[in-house]
Amino acid sequence: MKECKLQPKFKDSSHFKNFWEKGNGKQLIELSGAEVSLKDFDQFSEFYYHIDTVGDEVVKDIYFTKNFHEASREIEQYIRKGVSVDENVPESVKQLFQQTQKVPDWLDHDLLKSGAELCMRSNLDSLISLRDYCLIGGYDYAYLNKPLMATEALKKGAVKRLSETLDFWVNVTRYHALEVHHKGYEFAIKTRLIHSYAKLSIRKSYKEWDTENWGEPINSWDMMATYIGFSLVFMHSLKKLGNVVSDEEEKGLFHLWKYVGYLLGIPEKILPDNKKQATEYFYLWTAVQPSSDNDSVLLAHYLLNESLENPILKYQFQRRNLRYLHICCTWYLLGDEVCKRLKIPDVPFKKGFPVTKKILNKVYNNLVSREARIKRGNKDQMKVLEDYLSITQNSNFH
What we know:
Layout: H1 14-21, H2 24-32, H3 41-45, H4 53-63, H5 68-81, H6 91-101, H7 109-121, H8 123-138, H9 146-150, H10 158-172, H11 183-205, H12 211-214, H13 220-240, H14 247-263, H15 275-286, H16 294-304, H17 306-309, H18 316-334, H19 336-341, H20 352-367, H21 370-392
Helix pairs in contact: 1-2, 2-15, 4-6, 4-11, 5-11, 7-14, 7-21, 8-13, 8-18, 10-11, 10-21, 13-14, 13-15
């Protein structure tokens, strides 16, 4: 690990202060009861230069020694059948699967179930939250986006990238998905190795990488922030849209993403257990992130225009209407300052749809049983995923 000399250099910037004193950061503090400060900065900042060396070694031993599809088939066999200590496989593979096949002592399957149920119960609000708050909101952090630009991820198109994100999220948030050898577990391992593959490719080919400012490519601290997006920020968005989250569901959501983070090789020390920890950890990380740059704006507009290029909806007027609804939700969830930085188009009556949704959610939550909402949400989310996969014609992360 590189000796850490990182400083919280954006702590006095207007975007940092406005977020934590006026914007969504202030709301996160109120929601979580967090006590934010920079006193623990040095304990976390070292992870800006920390990477998943285990995953990296597997990629070097398997993916870099044979063609990609052959390597992928080999890894899939390990995922589905497991790896024993005395098996004739590379030591890196043994190390990876000894870690991920070992269920940690702290894992609570009842909490995993509660977390999955919240994700399913929230139905399309979950997908709105992921897209219009978590994903596009992440683009406001300029350094976080650099691996996407370095790997030219946009070349595959916004539809494909959104399909992959949705495929991952849906498959790790179903019942029993994260049990060893099950589908969510498989997605976690594959995603971990894709991260390592991308990281090694960046290191090999992208000579302009600025390690001092951007950290290591796909470093552990950025990964922590990303998965706080799936837990804390996601829950905040659901509440903004009028969803009620029980204490058990809240605990379950953080537990589920802590375990996903564990499978992905993020150090346990920086995986939060609850909303208070998550907010405090997130505060420290944002102090090293500048606000939107030109790449951020480009990424945001690729995502907004995904609705126009996606052939799931047959007619152009339907696609334009869907784009308009996503824009409305983005303004409502992210707030004016972030949307202006990302140059999100200003549209008329932009509060109409999200406010109406919020009111209807409160009525719906009171009228329909929790079990029925979970069942319906699972069905609707699987249908959206099926539609996306039928368009991209590839459910794998190749």
